[in-house]
């Protein structure tokens, strides 16, 4: 419902404005909902519903229609004379048609156990899909924050180009009035062309990232789409649960249900049955004529000795539980290591940002000095350009580090299992 509302909102906004706003959380939801693997969730549910319906039908009576015609080489004869009356021998050709009905009365809860197992299997299979879908979040982080970085770099390159153009105009004026050496502005011309090349490269990568993100979220986005930079100050304190944790719990529950079903397999099965038919002879084998007949009763099926098969199967399931415990411990270990590495990366970027402030402040003072020196002809354009480029490299690094920090926090939350605001 959340995804549908968001799509409707996008549709309305596209009619009223050329700009659309996307958040990281919305991209997560859209990517998970539109990724091809997501369709497995509903298919698994439909498949299980049909399997449960088949299991439920075991409660219904079994009805069978049987018919046979036989001719046998010999029949029962009674070679005795009862006061001059002979008992007629049964004909060698015999005919029989019956309707047999069998109704389950008791089976120790096997049907219920099978249904419970199917339902847990469904949850486990769906959770496996969700685990795979969860991995998409890291890719979304990569494209989402990559787009933000390309846009920041483009903005700074524009600013750099504008500032350089001002220096070019000043130098051209000085050359015109003879206070600067002719052709000295060529160095700045070449650098402006270099900036334009960088802009073309960044724009190409920007468009590629837009196309990749658009493919994952299944809606068109372009340069007019606004991507909000998430501020994730609570990334460390927020609780989280990885989908893998629930998957391991469901696998354990699945094995528990298998054990329950095995235990119930030792219980007897009790059926009520009825048979009705028509044939020659009927149940009276001495009556050599067509007759109808019927029988009703109760029967018991009980495998009282299974040679220890159920016991061995339960031991096998216990081993499977131990294997799942090991998988869980291995995942938790790797997850802790990933979190530690992610936290170290966050700390490193935060330290870099502190240094960025100092570096930019120093570079700005240096550029002010060199700009004055260039104006008065003390230094060459090449010398000015060296310091000018260092300043903008520092500014670009700072902006990229700011986005890197938020991306690192977003990755931390994904690793921890908390991708909510």
Description:
With 421 residues, the chain is an alpha+beta fold. The chain has a single domain (21-71, 90-416), classed as Outer membrane efflux proteins (OEP). Helix content is 63%, strand content 13%. The protein is built from 9 helices and 8 strands. The strands form 3 sheets. A 4-stranded antiparallel β-sheet has the order 2-5-7-8, with no helix packed on it. Strands 1-6 form a two-stranded parallel sheet. Strands 3-4 form a two-stranded antiparallel ribbon. Strand 3 and strand 4 form a beta hairpin. It is rod-shaped and about 155 Å long. The two termini are 19 Å apart. Mean pLDDT is 87; it is low at 1-9 and 11-18.
Gap between N and C termini, in Å?
A: 19 Å
Number of domains: 1
CATH architecture: Up-down Bundle
Helix fraction by DSSP (H/I, runs of at least 4): 55-70%
Order of helices and strands: HEHHEEEEHHHEHEEHH
- Let me know the CATH homologous superfamily: Outer membrane efflux proteins (OEP)
Counting H and I runs of at least 4 residues, what is the number of helices? Answer: 9
Look at the structure and give the mean pLDDT.
87
As a whole number of angstroms, the C-alpha radius of gyration is: 41 Å
With strands numbered from the N-terminus, the spatial order across the biggest sheet is: 2-5-7-8
Portion of residues in beta strands equals 5-15%
**Low-pLDDT runs:** 1-9, 11-18
**Secondary-structure class:** alpha+beta
**CATH topology, which one?**
Outer membrane efflux proteins (OEP)
The top-level CATH class is Mainly Alpha
Number of strands: 8
- C-alpha geometry: rod-shaped
Query: What characterizes the major β-sheet?
Result: 4 strands, antiparallel
């Amino acid at each position: 419902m959340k995804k549908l509302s968001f799509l409707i909102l996008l549709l309305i906004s596209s009619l009223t404005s050329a700009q659309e706003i996307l958040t990281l959380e919305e991209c997560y939801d859209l990517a998970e909902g539109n990724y091809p693997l997501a369709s497995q969730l509903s298919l698994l549910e439909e498949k299980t519903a049909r399997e449960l319906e088949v299991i439920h039908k075991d409660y219904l009576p079994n009805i069978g229609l049987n018919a046979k015609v036989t001719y046998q080489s010999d029949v029962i004869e009674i070679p005795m004379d009862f006061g001059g009356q002979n008992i007629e021998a049964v004909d060698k050709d015999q005919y029989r048609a019956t309707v047999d009905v069998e109704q389950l009365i008791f089976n120790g809860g096997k049907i219920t156990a099978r249904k419970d197992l199917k339902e847990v299997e469904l949850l486990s299979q769906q959770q496996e899909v969700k685990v795979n879908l969860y991995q998409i979040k890291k890719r979304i982080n990569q494209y989402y924050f990559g787009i933000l970085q390309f846009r920041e770099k483009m903005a700074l390159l524009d600013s750099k180009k504008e500032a350089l153009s001002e220096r070019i105009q000043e130098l051209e004026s000085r050359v015109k009035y003879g206070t600067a050496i002719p052709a000295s502005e060529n160095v700045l011309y070449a650098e402006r062309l270099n900036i334009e090349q960088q802009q073309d490269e960044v724009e190409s990568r920007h468009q590629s990232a837009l196309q990749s993100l658009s493919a994952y979220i299944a809606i068109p986005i372009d340069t007019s789409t606004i991507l909000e930079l998430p501020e994730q100050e609570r990334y460390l304190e927020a609780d989280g649960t990885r989908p893998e944790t629930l998957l391991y719990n469901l696998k354990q529950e699945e094995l528990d249900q298998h054990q329950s079903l095995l235990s119930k397999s030792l219980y007897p099965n009790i059926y009520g049955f009825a048979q009705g038919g028509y044939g020659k002879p009927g149940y009276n084998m001495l009556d050599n004529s067509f007759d109808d007949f019927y029988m009703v009763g109760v029967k018991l099926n009980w495998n009282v000795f299974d040679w220890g098969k159920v016991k061995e199967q339960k031991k096998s399931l216990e081993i499977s539980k131990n294997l799942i415990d090991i998988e869980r411990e291995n995942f938790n270990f790797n997850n802790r290591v990933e979190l530690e590495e992610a936290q170290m990366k966050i700390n490193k970027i935060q330290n870099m940002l502190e240094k960025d402030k100092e570096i930019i402040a120093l570079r700005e003072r240096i550029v002010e000095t060199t700009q004055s020196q260039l104006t008065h002809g003390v230094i060459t354009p090449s010398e000015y350009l060296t310091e000018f480029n260092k300043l903008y490299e520092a500014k670009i690094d700072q902006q990229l580090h700011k986005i890197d920090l938020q991306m690192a926090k977003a990755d931390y939350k994904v690793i921890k299992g908390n991708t909510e605001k």
